[in-house]
Each structure stands twice: as C-alpha cells, then as structure tokens.
Amino acid sequence: MKKRFIDLHVHTTASDGTLTPQEVVEKALELGFSAIAIADHDTAKGLEPAIEAVGGRGLEIIPAVELSASEGESDIHILGYLIDYRDPKFTSVAERLRRARYERGVRMVEKLNELGIGIKMETVKEIAGEAAIGRPHVADALLQGEYVKSYDEAFARYLGYHAPAYVPKYRLSPKEAIDLIHSVNGVAVFAHPGLVHRDELIPKFLEMGLDGLEAFHPQQGYYVSNHYIDLAKKYGLLYTGGSDCHGTRKGKILMGSVKMPYSCLEALRRRRKELEKGREGNLAV
Length: 285
Ligand code: AMP
Ligand code: FE
Ligand code: FE
Ligand code: ZN
Fold this sequence. Notes:
Blueprint (H helix, E strand, L loop, with lengths): L4 E6 L10 H10 L4 E4 L8 H8 L5 E12 L2 E8 L6 H27 L6 H8 L6 H10 L6 H9 L14 H10 L3 E4 L11 H6 L4 E5 L5 H14 L2 E4 L18 E2 L1 H22 L1
Parallel strand pairs: 1-2, 2-3, 5-6, 6-7
Antiparallel strand pairs: 1-8, 3-4, 4-5
C-alpha cells in the first residue's frame, strides 16, 4: 500500500499566510499529501473554503487552530486539533480575539504615526483582507509605503518585541487555551516548543491537560525533534509535526519540508475519543 503522509501545521490568508485556502489545497495535492491541518492563528475561517476547494479529490482537511497564549514574557502557541470549529464556544472567543487584534492594529498605526510614519489603518486593513490583523500586515504596509526596505527591517526597527511601535496583543493564558480546545472536543498540542525554550513549563501544561508536543518543525532540527519525542514518551504525550507553512511570508513555501506519517492523525483521533469518554465518565459520576 502507498505510504500516506500528512502536514499538521499550515497557515492560510485567514491569518498571516500568503496562500489562500484554495492555493494551500492545490499545493498539498501537488505534493501528494493525504491530509493537512489548517491551523491559522486564532481563527478557523480558512477551513470551510479549504474543504470546499478539495471537492472530493482525496485530501483530508483536519480542522485546527493555533491559539496564542502568554506565560510571563513567553509567547506560547497551543495547537488545537479536530476541534468543533463551528461551536459558538469557539467562535465567540475567536471573534473576541479578532476584535482585540483590530484595536491593537489601530494602536500600532497610531504609534507609527507618532514616529512620523504616515501609514494609514485603511492600508493595513486592505492588506489583511479577511484576516485578523497582525504585525505581518503592518510590516507589509511599511514595505509598501517604502518606509523600510525589507520585512525584517520592519520588525527590527518598528514592530519587534522591544521596538517602538510594538503593542502586546491580548492573549489567553495557556490554561484558557487548553480548556477552550477541550471544550470543543479538540486535542491540545504545544506548538514548536523548541523555539520557546521553556521546557520547565511542560509539567505544568500537563496538569492543565496538554495532550501533545510538536516535535517536528522546520526550525527544530534532528536533535531538538528527538528531545521532544523523548519528553513526549516520558510524559505520556503524543508528538506531532508540521511545516508551519506561511506561504512565501518566510521566504520559500515550507509545505513539503515536514512529512508526518498518517498514523499521527490516527493517534490524534484516538486521543480525541479518549477525552470524549473521560468527559462522559465525569458526567456519569
Ligand atoms: P502577531 O501575532 O501579530 O504578533 O504577529 C506574529 C507574527 O509576526 C509571527 O507569526 C511571525 O510570522 C511574525 N514575526 C514576529 N516577529 C518577527 C520578526 N522579528 N521578524 C519577522 N517576522 C516576525
Ligand atoms: Fe504566523
Ligand atoms: Fe506558532
Ligand atoms: Zn504557526
């Protein structure tokens, strides 16, 4: 039988990817994937257009989301797999995060204006289109207005963590993110832990009900991936992996650079069932 492979971490224009859900689907089919998880930041709006675009051509779209949470100064991303993305428990939080991102965009533009940079919120909105507004869209506006020569310069001079136009975004706590994912029948996975350098938090997340670690990621090399597989085994967690493809935003298209076996999806499905049973058990008590 043909070996099936999957990518569990793909972004679209519904957040800060440069490929539309339709383009992501075409790329995944071209590369021979059996399933991909559309895991946009704080939104599930890329899912339905992707599912429609497949049109029965044998590519499974796994409903997912990448929630931003904060723990002290660290940015913690929690992936939610197999979520009931139409559940109002999820959509109401997504809508709240979207509004908060819009307000933050307005404040970043104001700060830039105070620095003498004449960009307008209208331009940022046009660039973002349907997407929830993020720093990448503001960076694109700076580039378009020729205030900077590169995307990296936009972050280094204005939008980066310690730069003058940086505005922190409203974020959930890791517990809120994990609870939200579980409340809509999803499986919660700590995204790219190798980029966060806070392994000491993992036992704490475990107590909050974390289900897995993202061991494979383009920025996590061989040793780092093995380290997280070992940790996952030690703690009885699942391990996953994906390309974190943002289209051409990070240079080349990363889809295809990480291929996970189909069994990884089956493990997520088993975990989802176990969680469901656990909840039913709790109700019976
Ligand atoms: P936001 O969620 O609006 O804070 O934007 C976060 C996104 O900005 C990340 O997913 C990256 O794609 C991008 N980003 C953050 N920091 C940098 C940086 N220093 N250089 C380039 N891109 C960055
Ligand atoms: Fe991103
Ligand atoms: Fe992330
Ligand atoms: Zn991501």
